[in-house]
Amino acid sequence: MALTQVQSGMIGSVSASSVTTGTLPAAQAVSGSIIQVAQYLNYTYASTTNSSFTATGYAVTITPKSASSTMLITCSISASQSASNGGGYFTIYKNGSNLAGANGYSTMYSNASFSNPFRVGIPIEITNASGGTSAITYEIYFKTNTVGTVGINQDSTASSITVMEIAP
Amino acid sequence: MIELWKLDEAIRKLNPTVATIRGDIAYDKDENVVEYNKAAAEAEAIKDTQ
């Protein structure tokens, strides 16, 4: 059996640049670094005529590694509106609750001069405290301004929601 | 190929209780599933383009 003898001077601090293998525990991650990423991207069409926020089906569930992390949520929404003077509103729900105000984070409006359906790309980018280490579901919701139908993913386009956990 | 928004309009025209569509599944305003005839909706969508 091979033995290793610890000699004077062998135990001490090691430069981070010398560590080339292994996985750093989340608790030791450098503040501001990304601990984990989760994304849902899909081409599935969805639409609503509801004037109250309705789930799109575009959701990400993530379990924070730290209770004090910051969650960066970004959405890329390929949006459409069927009617002239029709509007659309988009927001993000966290575990079934709207994180924004009554009209969400972003809006679109189809001017009468546009041919329908009106299409536009909608970005949303927010941060949210992890607030614990239980699983969190973030989902894109949408609604109309009571006119027309608001949709996502016309013309075989895609929408996505991405969640990044940032070390405290 | 039928444009999605044409099919969407046809589904809603033939099934007025439909409020939301996610993929191929339609729902009313209370998120109850609304059964619909997809072939009839596709025929309606094509008719509107002719």
Characterise this structure.
The complex is a heterodimer of chains A (168) and B (50). The two termini of chain A are 44 Å apart. In chain A, strands 1, 2, 4, 8, 10 and 11 form a six-stranded antiparallel beta sheet that branches. In chain A, strands 3, 5, 6, 7 and 9 form a five-stranded antiparallel beta sheet that branches. Chain A contains no helices and eleven strands. With 168 residues, chain A is mainly beta. Chain B contains two helices and three strands. A three-stranded antiparallel beta sheet of chain B has the order 1-2-3, with no helix packed on it. In chain B, a hairpin with a 5-residue loop joins strand 2 and strand 3. The radius of gyration of chain B is 10 Å and the shape is elongated. Classes of the chains: A mainly beta (168), B alpha+beta (50). The interface between A and B is medium-sized, with 20 and 14 residues. Strand 2 of chain A pairs antiparallel with strand 1 of chain B, so a sheet runs across the interface.
Helix content of chain B: 40-55%
The major beta sheet of chain B can be summarized as: 3 strands, antiparallel
Poorly predicted ranges of chain B (pLDDT <50, ≥5 residues)?
none
Output the structural class of chain A.
mainly beta
- What is the tally of beta strands of chain B? 3
Quote the distance from N terminus to C terminus of chain A.
44 Å
Spans where pLDDT lies below 50 across 5 or more residues of chain A: none
Give helix % range of chain A: under 10%
- Beta strand count of chain A: 11
What average pLDDT do the residues of chain A reach?
90
Order of helices and strands of chain A: EEEEEEEEEEE
**C-alpha termini separation of chain B:** 13 Å
As a percent range, the share of strand residues of chain A is over 45%
Total count of helical runs of at least 4 residues of chain A: 0
Shape of chain B: elongated
Order of helices and strands of chain B: HEEEH
Strand content of chain B: 15-25%
Oligomer: heterodimer
Major beta sheet summary of chain A: 6 strands, antiparallel
Largest interface: A-B, 20 and 14 residues
Radius of gyration of chain B: 10 Å
